[in-house]
Design brief:
The chain is mainly β. The chain contains ten helices and 38 strands. It is globular and about 80 Å long.
């Protein structure tokens, strides 16, 4: 055992005191520890008391190494943060802490999929290896991140007013090996969670150091190659961590992805997450060619193979540079923390989702450009006190952010501006410069009334202001501002016989694209007036839950939830205009189980069921449907009616998500894991005519590691070679081989009504999951 700057006697006494108070937490043996004691600002007695876990504290799942537990990341001000193994109480049954070791024990196809360790969360991809993932949680198709707030090292990942979609959250730059822990919250019940957090928030924390240098190489099917290295050294009173990766991947696609990325991280830290600071720099670049989703009819008829692309020039390039810092401390009155960040990112994305529907001559490929500078700073202060003789804790905080954004949407053919090919065609649909700033103020007060009752009351106020300058249409230039207040409430009852009960309720919000708040002219038809969208949208939810450890080794929780979203008008980044959406209502339950009967076996099983529906009627869709009915009466094919009837089903809202897994092995020797994840059938259109098929996939891993840190492992992805879809959609498109295309635009058009031609052929449109895939990893420590 190695110690630096710490007293062995004092630490042993503290461990003995904690083991006596919590015998179930006592380790079987003391781990090897490398300690650098930070300079203390509080009295030792006060510090030890502050670090004592409270009853009902959320602990990392079994199997976490002490190093992974202690390597807590800096979270944004007010968010959960754990240093030196300390833990704050769990406030909801659905609140979860996941260690970096658990994250890295899961075989995954791409970086974002490691977040499937979050119970009830499915992470998919429908377009290339550089584009943000699709996320599904609690009956939401969260698209690329709307209503799921993601943070890495306290820096928000979600991009507001983004060229491809509101809340765009790209995690392809995340290196799983650098993850220390993940803190998960669900529902709008936490005052320190703001934009995009109505369904949930995920705070990903980074490690500060590693005991030995790591070198790792992975090679696998379809041209997969990845090289990763990480090391840390003592510098002054802290650690300097350096990590980097380089990789490429073609995928099973007929047109190879040819994805090439390079990624780097440098981090200097002193102390812990509760008493210390860190400065982190990141750099990332990626480029790729993507195989987008294709119509099911083209595969069925043999016009396209399962892994073919309709437009082989789709794809993109992106880069991201970030610098962030955080500082935290404790004193006799309580604790405080602050962080700040600056992110420079750029994305150029080429997609073609409808093929030849909008432009039968040159096709429907479009280019989205996003170039932004994002700045932010947060701070909070927690004061310990008492109320009527009962322990009380009050937290106040401020969160600020400003985005300086340049955006553009253009029509292209094979990545060439359409107007450069044909002067009669529209090239630039719209181009804008946007400045968007926000301030969030919050306060939370927690009182422990008895040993079995704790309540938290909070309030959050958000203010947003934006200026949009349109480079293409002055009528769409303007200013917008909005504010919302959101009360919050949580209550914890217990523990009784190792069982706790939870209640939560609150209001939340998410921001809309700033361009939608100022747009009055349709960019594709400037003479057409359209409604502007609200800048902020209200959400509200409630949840009750229970968590129990009554069975030794088994941690189980059950949460019943509801979440309502107000009527809103959404900005469509793919079209450059706004489209109406109705209020929605969701309710369901989540059941999570984690069982560790022995040190070498770890089992988990999660199930989430949700009922999701729109509220009210869709007058616009009803009018469209009536026009199509009239066209059918005039002789058009009745197939155009499929999927176009008005209804209350929410497209792509999953009703069932399930997962299960088993991990075997000790710290050395043979190890393995087998994981299963299931995404149930979902409606793809409002009338439920088109539905996706369920996806059930198994992934496996087997390997060996020795006491010196060397490891070899084999990952087998899609173990049963299931022919399923990563994701499916239901909408109208047009291919040159379609009979409707020939009837509308062929050499001898048949006079089909324009409404039918513009609707296209309604069909399932899908992106297949990769087939059976092998990846071999060799890693060593030095």
């Amino acid at each position: 055992m190695r110690w630096r700057g710490a007293s062995v006697g004092v630490l042993m006494a503290a461990l003995a005191q904690q083991a006596e108070a919590h015998p179930e937490r006592a380790p079987a043996e003391l781990p090897t520890v490398d300690v650098d004691a930070p300079k203390r600002t509080a009295k030792p007695q006060a510090r030890r008391a502050a670090q004592q876990p409270k009853p009902g504290a959320a602990r990392p799942r079994a199997g976490a190494t002490p190093a992974a537990t202690a390597a807590a990341a800096s979270a944004p001000s007010g968010a959960p943060s754990v240093g030196s193994g300390a833990a704050r109480p769990r406030d909801m049954a659905s609140e979860t802490v996941i260690t970096g070791e658990e994250i890295n024990a899961r075989p995954a196809t791409r970086p974002g999929e490691v977040l499937e360790a979050v119970p009830g969360l499915i992470v998919t991809q429908h377009s290339g290896e550089g584009k943000a993932n699709q996320y599904f949680l609690r009956g939401y198709n969260l698209d690329h991140g709307t209503d799921l707030a993601l943070f890495v090292d306290g820096v928000p990942v979600n991009m507001r007013t983004h060229a491809h979609g509101q809340g765009y959250a790209d995690l392809n730059w995340l290196m799983p090996e650098t993850i220390g822990r993940v803190d998960v919250r669900k529902g709008p019940y936490f005052a320190d969670e703001g934009d995009f957090a109505s369904v949930g928030s995920v705070h990903i924390g980074l490690i500060d150091s590693v005991p030995k240098a790591i070198a790792q190489m992975t090679a696998g099917s379809f041209g997969y190659r990845r090289f990763f290295g990480m090391d840390s050294v003592h510098v002054g009173d802290g650690h300097l961590l350096i990590a980097g990766e380089a990789g490429r991947y073609d995928g099973p696609w007929t047109t190879p992805d040819d994805a090439k990325k390079i990624n780097g991280l440098m981090r200097y830290s002193q102390g812990t997450a509760t008493d210390g600071f860190s400065i982190t720099g990141m750099a990332y670049a990626n480029r790729w060619t993507s195989t987008d989703q294709v119509p099911e009819r083209a595969i069925t008829l043999g016009d396209l193979g399962r892994y073919d692309a309709y437009d082989p020039t789709d794809g993109g390039k992106t880069n991201r540079f970030a610098l962030s810092g955080r500082i935290a401390g404790t004193d006799d009155a309580g604790s405080w923390k602050a962080n700040a960040y600056v992110v420079k990112s750029q994305l150029d994305l080429y997609n073609n989702f409808t093929y030849a529907l909008s432009n039968p001559t040159y096709g429907d490929q479009f280019h989205q450009h996003d170039d932004r500078l994002m700045l932010g700073a947060n701070a909070s202060r927690t004061i310990n006190g008492s109320f009527a003789g009962r322990p009380m804790e009050t937290t106040i905080g401020i969160q600020t952010r400003y985005d300086d954004i340049a955006l553009a949407l253009t029509n292209t053919r094979q990545r060439v501006l359409l107007s450069d090919i044909d002067q009669n065609e529209t090239g630039i649909v719209r181009a804008d410069k946007v400045g968007e700033g926000s301030v969030g103020l919050y306060v939370e007060n927690t009182v422990r009334w008895t040993d079995w009752l704790r309540t938290t009351v909070g309030y959050r106020g958000d203010y947003y202001q934006t200026h949009v300058y349109s480079l293409t249409n002055g009528n769409n230039t303007g200013d917008a501002a909005a504010s919302l207040g959101s009360p919050k409430f949580r209550m914890v009852i217990g523990p009784f016989n190792k069982t706790e009960f939870f209640v939560g309720a609150g209001y939340g919000m998410h921001s809309n694209d700033a361009r939608g708040a100022t747009t009055t002219d349709d960019p594709t038809a400037p003479s057409t007036r359209i409604d502007s969208s609200p800048l902020l949208v209200r959400t509200k939810g409630a949840e009750v839950g229970v968590r129990t450890r009554i069975i030794p080794g088994l941690d189980s929780s059950l949460s019943l939830f509801m979440l309502n979203q107000d009527s809103e008008i959404l900005f469509s980044g793919d079209a450059g205009n706004t489209e109406a959406s109705r209020p929605s209502r969701r309710y369901g339950f989540e059941l999570t189980n984690h069982y560790r009967p022995a040190s070498w076996i770890d089992i988990d099983a999660d199930l989430a069921m949700t009922h999701a529906r729109f509220v009210g009627s869709d007058d616009g869709q009803a009018d469209t449907y009536n026009q199509l009915v009239a066209a059918v009466a005039a002789g058009a094919t009745a197939e155009v009616l499929r999927g176009n009837a008005p209804g209350n089903y929410i497209p792509n809202a999953p009703s069932m998500i399930a997962s299960a897994g088993i991990t075997l092995g000790e710290k050395t020797g043979w190890f393995g894991s087998l994981r299963w994840r299931y995404l149930g059938s979902t409606p793809l259109t409002e009338d439920n005519y088109f539905r996706s098929t369920a996806t059930s996939v198994f992934n496996g891993r087997i390997g060996f590691r020795d006491a010196n840190g060397w490891r070899i492992q084999l990952d087998v992805l899609n173990l049963l070679n299931t022919k399923a879809s990563q994701i499916s959609y239901g909408y109208g498109s047009l291919l040159p081989t379609d009979q409707l295309y020939k009837d509308c635009y062929g050499s001898a058009p048949t006079g089909v009504p324009a409404q039918v031609c513009q609707t296209g052929v309604m069909d399932r449109v899908l992106h297949p999951i990769e087939p059976l895939t092998f990846r071999v990893t060799v890693a060593g420590t030095f």
